[in-house]
Write a structure and sequence with these properties.
21 strands, alpha+beta, 6-stranded antiparallel sheet, globular, 6 helices, OB fold (Dihydrolipoamide Acetyltransferase, E2P)
């Protein structure tokens, strides 16, 4: 049983089209579930096996269909919406007693949106809308396993409804799209309330005052198609004391800049590009830098090579999808 790289999306703006379907965007941990007669195995987007962290999901999936591979998001819901802080407690546990306790006090839900293999045969080359139909027939829902809803054509209305419900946005997917493992495809578009991106930490500005032991700001970048790390700005807000400590501990100093065109910033300390963080910003400026970025979280579930410029859209951010 080999892990499968999940298909990825680009960013965009709300739109409507009869050739597309629209799903809620779940703020969770991406998970591909491998089901066979012998066992259930859960993997995250970094191709690591995470089955022991979610025994309640493994037990529920073991009662359902066999010989298939599913794609979805693991989430912990609080007051009807995904709560990433609660999920983070589940996702970083290694102690079996603690895992058992949290599986009961803070149960996770597996929100399934795609099927890649059915009865041992790949269905990835079938159109998405056909895979959705197969998924509905194949998977029996339970308290902890659910199939995501979707709406055809009316993406703008669906986006407004999702935001009102407290969700972070929606996913737009071309109905005819094939499943492309490991590919960031314009056939899938994530539409969020504001621009968010997973970026590589390539340097930092030393901190002052109470932040002197840590950093004042992180210098961030993303990789282009040539494999060069492109500088997109710095972030200095949104950090808790715990995150300041955690991120600083992960620093590995570098004698030179990892960016292809380093920013002319004084007193910068360069780092080996090893850490990934998620930030939120209003937009990208005309010179392709983040405007008013705020740190959201460390992304231990992502590798640096997943942090491409493409995730920000063809020109960097908020590209409205139009039909060809």
């Amino acid at each position: 049983m080999r892990p499968i790289k999940p298909m990825l999306a680009v960013s965009g703006n709300p739109f409507s089209s009869e050739d597309w379907l629209f799903e809620p965007k779940i703020d969770g941990t991406r998970c591909i579930a491998h089901l066979s007669e012998q066992r259930v195995a859960l993997q995250n987007r970094r191709l690591r096996w995470i089955t022991p962290r979610y025994p309640e999901l493994a037990d529920s999936l073991a009662q359902g269909i066999k010989n298939c591979v599913l794609d979805g998001e693991i989430a912990v819901f609080k007051e009807g919406v995904p709560d990433f802080a609660s999920l983070a407690q589940r996702d970083h546990q290694a102690d079996s007693l603690r895992i058992d306790y949290l599986s009961k006090s803070m149960p996770a839900t597996y929100v399934v949106f795609d099927i890649l293999f059915w009865e041992g045969v790949s269905v990835m080359d079938l159109p998405l809308i056909e895979r959705k139909q197969i998924l509905k027939k194949a998977l029996q829902e339970s308290d902890s396993i659910t199939i995501t809803d979707y709406l055809l054509e009316k993406g703008e209305a669906y986006y407004q409804a999702a935001v009102k419900l407290g969700l972070e946005g929606i996913m737009a997917k071309r109905k005819s799209s094939r499943y492309l493992p490991g590919i960031r495809s314009s056939d899938w578009i994530k539409i969020k309330k504001s621009l968010t991106a997973d970026l590589v930490v390539g340097g930092y500005i030393p901190g002052k005052g109470h932040r002197e032991p840590y950093f004042g700001g992180l210098l961030l970048g993303a990789y282009d198609s040539e494999g060069e790390l492109i500088y997109v700005g710095r972030v200095g807000t949104g950090f808790s004391q715990r995150k300041l400590v955690e991120i600083t501990r992960g620093f590995q100093l570098s004698p030179k800049s990892p960016f292809s065109q380093p920013p002319s910033t004084s007193s910068v300390k360069w780092l080996e590009p090893r850490q990934v963080v998620e930030v939120e910003a209003l937009e990208l400026t005309p010179n392709q830098h983040l405007r008013a970025p705020v740190f959201l979280r460390v992304r231990e579930d992502k590798t640096v090579d997943e942090c491409s410029i493409d995730q920000l859209g063809m020109k960097g951010a908020n590209v409205t999808k139009k039909e060809d």
